[in-house]
Amino acid sequence: MKNKLSGILSSMSKFFNRFFLSASIKKKLAYTFLLSSSLYLAASVIAAYSANGMLSNMNSVKKTGDKSITVTEIGRLINAKDIRIADYITFLNEEDLREYRTLRKELNKELNHLMSYSNRENKDLLHSVVKNNKLIDELFIKEVAPAVIRLDEEIYTESRKEISRLRNQNNKLLTEFRAGTLEDQNRIMNDMRDTVFKSLVLVIITAAAALIISFVLVHFVSEYIKKRVHSILNITDAVSRGELNHALRPPEPYEDELGKLSNSIGSMVLKLRELVTGINRGHIL
Q: ∠ CA(166), CA(134), CA(152), 5° rounding?
């Protein structure tokens, strides 16, 4: 395991020397900029993904809110239609009958609309509501209304009881539907909070990593350049003082501008040494 780790570190070191230290100063700065930009871009992508998830969850919350409003409206229409049935039985008024037809049409429209974007479980509840609603209409049209006209109190009284039972059952089903919708809404809100928290943590970590890595790379490059420039300045200062015997560093293995400059100055100093040495020997002879 230790040998394997050493091999990995050695490979990374070779890769670093080949693609970074040997690169030109312009490329070093470009690599630093690209790496930092990539990390900041990753943070931006995470933030955008989080925003998209929040938008999707907000749309889901809006849909569940619309469902609750529609369910409330359906409940109102069911009860209003039942009141019109009771009023028609009591007063035998054509206006109540017309109002009943209008309410029946609106109720069917709202039920179909709610059915179109409900999940399977909610659709099962709605099917039961629709079925009960149809039974109420059939009882009123086929039994209650004719019995009221004939003044057959026994029939319309029994039918009225059955209509009330179906109405209560529908209200119970709608209450269950509304509770399920509220549960879905709470679940979506919890998911949204979890998504926001996780995305925020990822964005902070990525941004912090980008900041730290950028600082380390900039510091490394600046120190690298500073150290190399100081080394070259030491040699040129020694040459300016005539100290040609000043110890030179071995030839630079790097191929960047500073490495080439250092090697060129080293070659120049060596030739000056040879020249001065030759002049001194000629003078002695």
A: 70
